Amino acid sequence: MLRALIFSLPLSLVLSGCIDSSIRIVNSTPEATITSPVTGDSFIFGSSVTIRGAVFDANNSASELSVSWRLNENEICADSQIAGDGSAECNLSLDQPGQQRILLEVRDPDNATGSAFVDISVLYGEDPVVVLLEPLEDAIYDVETSIPFEAQVSDADGPISAINLSWESSAGDDLSALPVSAGADGIASASRPLSVGTHTITVTATDAFGLVGSSSVNIEVVSDPDNDDDGFPASEDCDDNDANVYPGAPDPFGDGIDQNCDEVDGVDLDGDGWLAPGQGVAEADEDCDDSDASIYPWAGDLAEDLVDSDCDGLDCDADQLNNAYFVVCAEAREWAVANTTCQSYGYDSLASVLSLTENNFLIQLSTMGTGSLWIGFSDRSSEGNWAWEDGSTAAYTNWASGEPNGGSGENCLEFIGTNPNFENPTLWNDAACDQSRWWACSKR
Predict the structure, then answer these.
(1) How far from 236 is each of 29, 187, 240, 257, 261, CA to CA, in Å?
(2) Which residue, 96, 229, 339, 367, has most beta carbons within 10 Å?
(3) Averaged pLDDT of the chain
């Protein structure tokens, strides 16, 4: 009976039961994409941005889906809707600095979800920094010259290449040909002439976020400038790029520069090669009498002629021999006092005599006779070790026979001069340093 019942069921019913037992319905996962911005984009703190995305689901239409937006896990744009084409937007105010993650999530009616995210940077938004290096503040330029323009830029919020530069002159000159961007080193430079008048030059830097920085200088463009600001325009100044060169300036002799524009190196009224005393003239270059060409430093001198021909302040015989200048003073002094006197008048010390030629020259120099002379040879520091006071090498000596013989009691050297105990006045003798003798100085 049961078999008869089974076989009596419609075939369609039997087949239907078999098919239903094998069907499995699969729900696909919805997909989400953020189309704008993209990972790595930067924005300024406090600005607003529109986030755009798109969603798709193979099993459901856009109207059956729902979306949610999050910023760092915090829900935003709760009322965001999906358009018929699957697009969705979120208007976001960026009030948190630093790295931010924006998440878009889509959900279908069966609670299946898909998501996408982007990471952006929110910067505090510092203005770009621009500094005008040239032209120089308060500088005066010639209308005939090409004036240098140079600016240096930097920006904490982005690359230098994103900065746009614009230039302006308050006098209305067209500066649009000047560079609109800086190089990798942050420098933008060029040059061009400007019209006569007062100019306030301004350079403005605008970065990719629209933030602005600027720098200005004031300059003067004239037809006859005073470039070195020495009070003389270029037409009157023989060197308008050097503030130390102008008509009437101090003009030291011997430096190779005509500071006072008189076509002569120095102020030398008597033409003897030495400068008249004055502002800017070194003492070593001064002429003690610039009205007399026979009077100048190291000119030689005669004792008791009442003229200080060599400008040393001494009334003694003096003259030059090769690279040494000697003076002989017929005034009796102790050795140490005479040595100090030499140094106080600009000489190295008591004279050093380094050759037979110098020896003979010195003894013959005095017009006052041949009195014994102190010179700068002594063994005061170390008995028996004779040395020149000015540090010269003791390679030449001219001791009289048997000299030196005074031991520790005679430590200073004298030219013998007219001493009756010696036949040759050019020979040397050791004597007690506290004796009074004429004296000779030298300058090398």
Answers:
(1) 90, 36, 9, 17, 9
(2) 339
(3) 88
